[in-house]
Amino acid sequence: MIETLLFDLDNTLLDFNQAERIAVSKTLENFQITPAPSILKRYSELNLAQWKLLEQGKISREQVKLRRFQLLFSEQNIDAPAEEAAKIYEFLLAHGHYFMDGAEELLEYLYKKDYCLCAASNGPYEQQINRLKSAGMLKYFDHCFVSEKIGADKPGKQFFDGCMRNLPGIQPEDCMMIGDSLTADIAGGTLYGMSTCWYVPSVEKYNEEKSKSGKPAEYIIHELRELKNIL
Description:
- There is one protein chain.
- The protein has ten helices and six strands.
- Strand 4, helix 9 and strand 5 form a beta-alpha-beta unit.
- Helix 4 runs parallel beside helix 6.
- It is an alpha/beta fold.
């Protein structure tokens, strides 16, 4: 019986893509650089690539923060300090929040149902906690598991070990990992013996992944409110 729900944050409960666009735009404007759509798109691609390298254990979190701007500025021939840009961006991102559709309603519903709700996120600890506070979401969570504080990243076993140490009496089979990333959330939760729910708003993305490997998660939802029908 599922008692504990572990939620990814970015692009599961909080709209990271929108927060990223706004934070990057303001960061570039700080250096008198026009945030053209092509530059914002390229930053997003570079950022995602760095996080994938982190998941694979090839680079550190600090390298992620810096490399995405170093690579962007190099490609776009932008003369600006990557270190300063990274600091400005991190500050802006930590103080911006935009909900995924249905996130507040779902958390309120699950909170009243007395589930043990946990945030389970890769990322800088203070940034993620500040975003939850700013969004008014922190009150719903019994635990906030963030990779920087745990000392390991999803999908690694060490990340989930860190979560379980704080959940005495709970077994992996009592838990469900819910998130948008097949490589971090679903693969990590599955390997650890947890139930998994893949949140994939894009039907096109779902069909693409399904054609590759069949059903990638135990449960699949396209809208957050669908989770109510599973639990």
